[in-house]
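User: These chains co-purify. Model them together.
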Amino acid sequence: MAANYSIGQFSKKTSTTIRTLRYYDEIGILKPAFITESGRRYYSDNDLIKLQKIVSLKYLGYSLEKITEFIHMNDWNLKESLSFQRKEMLQKKLHIEKVIRALDHALHIMDDDGEVDSSIFISLILNIQMESEHKKWLKGFIEEKKVDAMYDIPEEKQLELNKKAITIYSDLKNLYGHDPESNQVQEVIKGYMEIVQEIIGDDFKLVQELYDMGNESESQIDTHNLFHSPFTPEEEEWVTKAMDIYLRKKGVIVDGK
Amino acid sequence: MAANYSIGQFSKKTSTTIRTLRYYDEIGILKPAFITESGRRYYSDNDLIKLQKIVSLKYLGYSLEKITEFIHMNDWNLKESLSFQRKEMLQKKLHIEKVIRALDHALHIMDDDGEVDSSIFISLILNIQMESEHKKWLKGFIEEKKVDAMYDIPEEKQLELNKKAITIYSDLKNLYGHDPESNQVQEVIKGYMEIVQEIIGDDFKLVQELYDMGNESESQIDTHNLFHSPFTPEEEEWVTKAMDIYLRKKGVIVDGK
DNA sequence: CATAAAACCTAACGTAACGAGAGATGCAAG
DNA sequence: CTTGCATCTCTCGTTACGTTAGGTTTTATG
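Assistant: Joint model of the four components:
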């Protein structure tokens, strides 16, 4: 029970700040072996081991509250707890990986032209963020296999396609107001449809299905909360018109207004 | 500039809590388009876009403070900032991966026997945590190539070796007090040395070097802060004695005390 | 032994991004 | 006119300490 170390010495020995040691004393997770009448703290070798335990568990991501529980209960189910913690950490890892992917996409589209329209940037990020929700939603309408195929594209290709799409969004925004039937506009739309086809393949029926889904009045509310558009409502109406014309010419749309 | 949405409506539309919206108003990152005399907040479509921008940037890991800066400066270098953020996130990812590895090791050694000695557990975690520091330290003494080779072991094998080592630590702790020269003790030490050899190869010179390094008085301080031992000082003295006897018999140590 | 310097003490505020509650007010419908 | 819902403004709580500020105790030195 030798209380050998003053707080300063203990602090150096353990690479823990004095403040931290006092805090641990305060919350009762590590009380020094001995306190003098004047209030000075002295720590023992036993405290050293206790602190190491705390540090280890902290490293594994536990909160001080949990650790306090662990230390005071002596029959804690370590294995189960570790296994739970592992799952939590895997979750966190997945999240970070998604964020990194979003950053990669954002950086990639800025490679040459440092400037991107703000709303395009936003929709890029928001859509990457919602990707898994998109998949789920689509699977409610389309065969699971087809949906998986749509998303099973090598990362590099995705970066490229996304970049092309962004350029087209930008072009469309610049062309807003022009006649939707003009060659200029129709050319850009054609470029867009080429990208769509690279993603979903040459399956024209699928193109049509997707198109219908986006326009069904009941799903409108869903789609607009789920898929973020880079366009303003006015722009979007105009783009839809241009797309309509394009698809009609291609014979994908036959009926209806 | 139509201020169309009450805070409740805006909250639902954006899946943001009312509290958050009020907070954003308070810190000035998103002030509603219009506030009535009685203090009610009304948001516009423009605010919608602003909020989406905030949400996007938050998703990328930026703090509200940074975001506020971004929004108020209109010439922020987005690209550089994103690139910096990416690095930060990669760091975080690396950290989490290390934690997961530590959890894996901890779980693996508990696969059969749910119980592990507390100090062994601690040293396992602390040593995994310090792994990169260990490598650096070793490279100050041993050829870089050799050090890299020591650590370049498939994860599965590492789990196995670690588990074996833990069992041996446990055995040694149980045998503490017995004659270090006894067959029983020497057998366990032999098992330990087999593990060591699996890691560093059949290079007896290297074994000797490592052994010397651990015992050189000047490096003692370093080693004890860097490598965490699962043994108490008394236990460790005893283990060292047993190891000494073993290595002397094997002819690895010749001279000295 | 006196004094200065070093080490230590408590107390209290600050952090980030809200969540949760208390208690007061506004506003539209019956 | 009252009921009831929406909204308002405080204010405290959260995590794990960092950071002063201002006072006391120990230790080193002349």
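The radius of gyration of chain B is 30 Å.
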